# Entry
Amino acid sequence: MENSENKTPFKMEIDCAEKQIHRASKALEKVDLLLESGNLQGALDCAFDFSSAVEKLLWTAREMPACTGHPLARKKIKQSEKDHLPVRIGFTPEGWFGLIIPALLPKKYKGTPVIFEYPLYYAMEEFFRHKLPRKRYKDCVIIFRHIYQRDRPERRYRDHDNIEVKTVIDIVAYYVMYDDGPLKFRH
# Structure
């Protein structure tokens, strides 16, 4: 057995991923057992445990290539993250800036990063790389359009102070606004 003091960062990440896969697998088994036994509330509670375990595994998987020390690892990680975020960025003929993220924005839970934050930064960085001088809006309105299933009316109203929307505002503001203060933009 390998001494933990002699493990490379890459091997430590591999070990961490194996533990997270095991936890996720066990949590999913529990969800399935509870659902089959008719305990929907218990299955729902365990589904959150499964979701949390997979989120942790995702972050480990994202960082694992960088632990190899390969000089191109960080660049490939950025590209992979950007490629997996289904985002469309552009300007309308009227000059409006548009950003479409056709996905459910995950909430940030205490101590966990927002999953799409870095990929969105990378996508915006790539979009604006050759667009100089960058267009900056002094006074603007940010419009959020949330689309939900009709059978989920409780999701119809959103608080734009929620962390997932604030993250999008911060990233958009960095690239196309002078200031994201309340006197400079409305939503």
Observations:
- The mean pLDDT is 79.
